[in-house]
Specification:
By secondary structure, the protein is mainly α. Helix content is 47%, strand content 0%.
């Protein structure tokens, strides 16, 4: 039994066709590449005593031919999304996904809870933390953790211990501390 999709294609010889294409590509790469050229090493390093020696990159044989340019000597800028930033994003995402997070997903509504802002001088919630994270306002993990802790401290200060808000804050605080201890072990 045979199935033909394109009559031009010899399906029985595809292996040979692919091998020919591969060889053609490799031949073109070999033609353009100068990787087979081996340059003499610098004499300063021949005896193994060149440690700490500063040399001009222009003096390195073959460096220019490889495509090097002086502007490539500038050190790469550090990644804007470093380990701490990734950790903060992960922690906040996990906190927001927790079943107890519903109470912290929006700022407290002053019309629904009129005295809240009289009692709580420094309010904090997950959307505010998310905004601060997105706009680069957290200089480090400790500042981020302080804001997360503030969310739960505020809930515990304002609400009596037997309320769902206080109990939820305690559970969320434990989750935060678990994440923080894991991150600190890694870093």
């Amino acid at each position: 039994m045979q199935c033909t999709m394109l009559r031009k294609v010899g399906y029985l010889v595809t292996k040979e066709i692919v091998a020919q294409q591969r060889e053609a590509i490799l031949a073109k790469v070999r033609q353009m590449s100068k990787s087979r050229i081996v340059y003499e090493g610098l004499p300063q390093f021949q005896d193994g005593k060149g440690e700490g020696l500063v040399i001009d990159p222009k003096d390195v044989p073959g460096l220019r031919e490889s495509g090097w340019m002086p502007n490539m000597n500038v050190p790469a800028s550090p990644s804007t999304k470093n380990f701490e930033r990734s950790a903060m994003e992960s922690i906040l995402s996990d906190l927001q996904a927790h079943p107890q997070a519903w109470a912290f997903k929006e700022p407290v509504n002053a019309q629904e809870v009129p005295d809240y802002y009289d009692v709580i001088q420094n309010p904090m919630d997950f959307p505010t933390m998310e905004h601060k994270l997105e706009t680069g306002q957290y200089q480090n993990l400790d500042v981020f953790i302080a804001d997360a802790q503030l969310v739960f401290d505020n809930a515990k200060v304002y609400n009596p211990e037997d309320t769902i808000y206080h109990k939820g804050a305690v559970k969320m605080e434990r989750l935060l501390m678990d994440h923080v201890s894991r991150v600190r072990k890694i870093s």
